[in-house]
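Hi Y.,

Following your request, here is the sequence exactly as I used it, all 299 residues.
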Amino acid sequence: MKITIQISHPLFQRLRDNPPQWWQNLKSDPEIYIDIRKENYLNVYHNGGSIMKLEWSKGYKAQIHMEYIPLNKVTEYALFEFQDGNISLSKLQTIDIKNFGEEALERIKKRIRKFYPNDSEKGIQAQYVINNNQKRSGEGFFLDTEMAYDDNRIDMVWVNIATKAIAFVELKTIGDERLYVSGKKDVETIDKQLKKYYEFAQDNRNDLIEHYDRVYHIKKDLGLLPGFAKDDSLKDYRLIENPILLVGDCTQQWIDKNAEDINNRLKDIAFGCLYQGKTNYNFKIPYKKSRNCFRLDEE
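Below is the corresponding structure, written out as tokens. Let me know if you'd prefer a different format.
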């Protein structure tokens, strides 16, 4: 893995030294989280939808998906126009985002939730990040989401302060067919998926620690870390090479029916499995065997 992220990149320096009002407004919204990308840009997320992909190239460059842009609602209905046998919509305008003021930002977030509602995998992912990162004290937090490498994407990266460890976390919902033994040749089962993450972590252990140490430094400089993240660096942290499976919308009936089979299939791959209900977004590294938690070993 080639380390490309730069702590001194102009984007991060300018946001730190001369933060614009729109940046401060985004940072202060409790329903938003921000991730640093290895290509030296960042994503501003709500419920897993990117409000902004922000870059620097002789100035700020940013984009948002067209589906997330609200229209300026003059009336409840948009009018059709008829002319020369053709029909078209009257001219529509997008809202004035007003430096991501509260009202405009809520309109954008509402649009995103139409695509990623709270009970979607992306929505659940967002709740885990926000719930754990905004605690006044805690044993860890999510430093990153959507870690991309090759054609793979790792859902979340957890920093465990108590044990000075970094871990990959793969989030699933019970509707994901990869959790189950499938006869479909084109479906990658959870054991195969996590094995790839394990091998990636093994092959790139030191580079991954260095990468996330730089991410940590950038987030610290930008005021994006939770208040209880007091360490100056992650250099003395270790990488847990075996990924963790988190299923975030379980019922006890589903756990009783499926967890044992999943645990058996992941016994030589995963560090542990955590099965939680729809309203429990308090993440902890699996530490014991129970009906809702499976840990492969004790360290």
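The radius of gyration is 21 Å.

Thanks again,
Q.
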